[in-house]
Structure formats: C-alpha cells, structure tokens
Design a protein that fits this description.
mainly alpha; two-stranded antiparallel ribbon; 34 helices; 4 strands
Amino acid sequence: MTTQTDTPTGADREGARQDHCLIAGQSEGPMASLRSARSRAGTASLEFRNRLASSHAPALRAARWVRASDMLSVRALRWAAKATASVLLVYVAVRWIFGPNSVTAVSLVQAMSVGSLYGVIGVGIILIYRTSRIINFAAGAIGAVPAIVAAILVVHDHVNYVAALPVVLIGSPLLALAVDIGIMRRFNRSPRLITTVVTIGVAQSLAVPGFFIPIWMGQKATSAGSLVPTPWSGVAFHNHRGESWLTGNEIAAFIVVATVTLLLGVFLRYTRMGIALRASAENADLASLLGVPVKRVATAAWALAGLLSGLAIFIQAPLIGTPSDATLGFDTLLYGLAAAVVARMERLGVALAAGLVIGVVIQGSIIRFADDSAAFASILLIILGALLLQRREMARARSAGEGTWQTVKQFRAIPSELRRLPEVERVRWGLGCGAAAFMVALPFIVGANNTSYVILLPIYAIVGVSLVVLTGWAGQVSLGQFGLVGVAAGVTGGLIANHNIDFFAALGLGIASGAVAAVIIGLPAVRLPGLYLAVVTLAFAYFVQYYFLNGSFPIGRNIVPSPSAILNRPILYGSIDLTSHTTAGQRAFYYVCLILLALSMASAYAFRRNRSGRVIIAARDNERAAPAYAINLTRTRLAAFAISGAISGIAGVLFVYDLGAVSAATYGPQSSILVFLAAAVAGVSSIGWTVFGVMALEATAVFGHYVYNAFGATWQHVLPLLVTGPLLVLGMYFFPGGAAQLGFDMRDRWLRRLAVRRKIVVPSLVGDVRVHEMAEAEVVLAAERHERESAVAR
C-alpha cells in the first residue's frame, strides 16, 4: 500500500512561519529568527569562554606570555640574522673600496660596538619623528647631560660604574620630560620649521650646562675625554697573534643594545602605551578622535628617546671616552640621522642595523685615510641611495599628519586699498632709502681697518636670499646651503687661480654649478615628503667640506687651487679697481657685493610675483590639490632648487674673490646651520627680514669679540651658546613667525589706525579684530561702497 504525503499549501507554510516567529519571539520572518538564534548561541558561547577564562586565567595568561616570548625570540633571531648579513656584506664592500687592510676582524668588532651608538640615536630620532613629525636635533644632547654627570662621577670621584648607572636611567627620561612639557608642548601648533629650529635651540641650551658641569664637579682639563673604567674592563679575548679582538666593554655594549631592542619591541607591541604610540604615529588626528591621549603619548616618546640616548652614550663612554660637548657635535647627529633615514623613519630594527653598518664604514675610512673624511662622502651616498630606493607613500593615513602642519608662517602684503596712500608710500620709500643709505655708508662708519669684515655681510645676505626661495617659498628645509656655495667656490676657484678667467664669466660659471648641484641633491629628496631634505643637505655640507674641497681626494685635487696659488681680484672695465691692497679697492669690492645682493633680491621678488613663484607656493601649501591644476610637483620643486642653487653660486664666487683662496672650513655645516637659524628667527618667508637677520648674525660673529672679551675667556665660549640656545627658544615662543611677525604686526596696527583716520574700510584688516564701532552690516556696505568707488576711479 502506498502512503501519500500531503503537500502543504501556501497558507499552511505561512501559518507555520508565523507560529515559528511567535515561538522565537519575533515577527520579522525567518532571517530575523536565524539572527536571533545565532545571537543567543554567540552570547552563550561568550559566557562559556568568560567562565572558562575566569577559571583558568593564570594558565591563559601564562600561555599568552609564552607565545609572545616565542614570537619575540623568532623576531629577534630573524633581526640578528639580517643585521649580521648586512654587516658582513658591508664588511666585504668596505674592504673592496678602502683596501684589504682597511677593516680587519678585530676592527670590525670595534666598529660595530661604536656603531651601535648611532643606531640607538637613530631609534630616538624615529620615535620623535613618528609622534611629532619633526626631526629632533636635540636627540643626543638630552641624554648627553646625565651621561656626562655619571661619567665624571666614575672618572673623577671613583664611583663604581654600575652604581652611577641610575643617574643615566633616571636623569635622561626626566630631562626629556622636562624638555617636552616645559618647551616642546608650547609649540604643538607652531609651524614644523619653527619646531625643528626649537630643537636646535634646545641642543644649544643643553650645551651650556654641559660646559659648566665638568667645572662644577672639579674635573681637570687633562681628564676630559678620557675612557671611563668599568668592572669588566680587564676582560679581553685574544687571537693567535695576541691581539685583543673582543673586550668586556664591547661585550657590554652588544648586550645592552640587544636588551634594549628586545624590551623596546615588547613595549611597542604588548603594552597599552606602546600600542597608543604606534597608533599616534600612524595618524595622530584619528588616534585623538578615538580617545588616544596624543600629548601624553608624545611625552612618553620623548622620555623613551632620552633614555635611549643617555644609555647609549654612557655605555659607549668606556669605548670612546667622555663627551666633551653636550650636543655631541653635528657629526654624531648626522650618523644617527643617516640610520633613521635608511629605516624610512619607521623601522626601529633597521635603524639599529644601519647604525652598525655606519660604524663599519667610519672605521674603514679612519684606518685607510687616518680620518673620517671619506666616511662623510659615504654617508651622503648611503642617504641618497636609501631615498632613491624608497617608494613614495601616498596613503592618506601616512600623509594626514603632514597636512595638519604649516611649514612656515606667511605674512600678507599691504592691502590694495591702502597701498597707494601718500603716508604708506612715504614710509615704504623712507625705510628702503634709509636701509640703502646705511649700507652704502657702512664702510665709512666702521673705518678703514674693518672694511674687509663688512664685505662678508652682503655675501652672507645673498645666501639668505637663496634660503628664502628654497625654504620660505618652496617649503624645503635646507641645512647645507653653504655646501652649494662651496661647490661654486671650488669650481670657479681653480679656474680663477690657473686661468685668470673674467669676473663675469666666473659669476656665470658659479651660477651654473650651484644650480646643477642643487638639482642633483634635490632629486632624491623631492620623492618623499617631510623633512628628508634637511638630512640630505646636512650630509651634503659635510661631503663638500671633507671630500669635494679636500685636496687628498680626486675631485678636490683637480679643481681646488693649491694653498700657494694667488687669486687676485679683477679690475673691472679697466678702471674699477677691486684689489685688496688699498682701502679704496676694499670699498669698491664691497659695493660690487652690495649691487649683486640688490640684484639677487630683485630677481627673487620678480620670481615670486610671476606664475612660477605662485606655482611653487601652491605646491607647498597643498601638494595633493596642485596636480589637479596641471602642476608638476617634481618639476616645480626642482625649479626652486635650481634657483636657490644659482643664487648660492653668486655667493660662492664672491667668497673666492674676497678670501683669495678656497678654504674648506668656510663652507662647513656649522655655517649652514647658523645661517638657517638666523633666517628662521628673522622670518624665512620674508626676503627683507631674512637679509636683515643673516647680516645681523654675521655682524655679531665679526664684531662680537669686542663684547665677548669683556666677559672673560669662559663666557667667550658660553655667550654664543646663550644667543643660539635659550634666547632663540624664548624668541620662538613669543614670536613663532620670527622677528618678521613682530614687524608685520606693528605694520598692521599702524595700517588699522591709518584706515580709521582716513575712514577707509579694509576687510583684510578688520577680519581679524573685533569691530566695536560699526555693526557687521555697516562694515559690509561700507566695504562694497569703497570697492565701487575704487573701480570708478580706476
């Protein structure tokens, strides 16, 4: 017998569905019922896991820590293998470049132990850059002050090395916290250029206690820079020839670096503050919206960077001696910056490995050439190669932090409504003519004996004009502007000495060589955003001084004139004698330099008013929107490099004729950084104020000894540090836009009073102040009426 199954009708299926929905407590249909069932199952599963976790919490925590330690062990072994392979590869390359005897197995260990210092400083630079998007030039100085105190305790007071270690472990982060809370937080919303300048001022400020601490603690001058004794100084391993290839101090340095690397990885990956630091580094604005305390995270990064710096310096003191300068000099900073750039300002492990590699390169240069001149050329090549191999990151999360900062402060021009008023015209012409008259009369004011000194003022001012184009308008920070000046001086100096070329031919050649060198240096830097150019130009300044203008190397040997060569100034047009034998010749050459300064300023003003200048400003202000208006960013920035280099080339030729020789020390990084500081303090976006600031700086350097000598020998060294340190920081605090901000604010207040007296409504002047005497509607109507009257008058 066959059993027939009744097929349910549509009504039956609908009734069953409704019954099922009622049972489930829902009325939306089967999908809602399914979601509800899954939700109940998920809740039950979550409750079960919570009960299980609560009953086995210690075991689960132990399992997680075991897994984390295993992962860290694997990562540490992988990093050690990569670092070892990189060092061995560089070891082979250095022996091939510098010779087979440049680096031996014994010197390799020494180089790696010293290179670890540069790697740790690079890690500190990366931590600050990722949280604040600035390059911290005080990275070494913050840790150097506590390290100097601890080292003197060990050397002078015979305190045990281990007992003095807490001075560094506690003092370095505390000093970094004080710097961040007391100084850097005041510049949170300042332009990045100003914040970077402040870090240089912090480094110079810390050099003051670094200078006095050894005196206060009774250290003798003969013990400065001496090696710090340690309990394990007597430990050494020797090879078959009796050479010590590994010492206890080197073993301690390797152990500390490995421990710091492991603990830093644990901190960044598994602690709440470390995760917050990584999140803030990815996108500070988004992290702040999600509740991450960005300011507190930045302070933690400063404390961690200070701890790393102090620990690295103190551990290296038994190997390289007590630091004699709290800033560590710009040499150590350059090596740390190179390690950070190779790591793309991101990867901490790569920075440590890069520091080891840099140590090997430096050791090979010292053994081969008895100094580190070749190392500076190698560092420049390493930085340029790292930038060329890195691909440009265009993700919005990466560039969001860049867009929230303004590179330099801008100042508006005189409003068109007031520009043609007689009062404004008289003031503008009066100030211009007064400044010109003062510069013309300056050789007679200072006297015949000091005329040779004032010649340097317009030459330095020309370098300042080149900085306005590159930094103030293009937004590219340059710390090696005197490197471009040195290239032009080196190229033209040999031709002047050997072939006595024409003065104007030398000027043309200097302009061309400066422009070409600037474009070559700018090519890798324009591919990546941020302050990478500051690192490239700083390395370039070292390259020019120690390699390009060094007669011991092929380039310098072929272009730089010999010390005995005579570079005479020309006689222009057969009647204008520029020679340095007479006071009249000195004054004539000064006026030639002054005329070239005026031409440089006029050329820069004309460039700014044309389309090319506006394109450079647009590319600086919004690099994402500029390509939408058919602006080629790379071509635009390279044009700014070329113009800046050409103006620097003029200064290079004038330096050659003024000094009568090509001295490499004249074009060192210290001169570049001082000119950059002067331009930033004066207001690098304004040509007039930059020229004033740079000339004031050079006048202080030339005639400052009359003031310094009155304070004694000690203060003669300290007063320049006070000027470029605490006074600079205070000036930046009250006037972030530099002295130009004070000047333009005074100008705007005078223009407001003039507009009120003339009953002229200027929207650009009343837009940033509260209007008490007129209602808003009256202001708008008056402005519209004035615009109509101006249009009719035109």
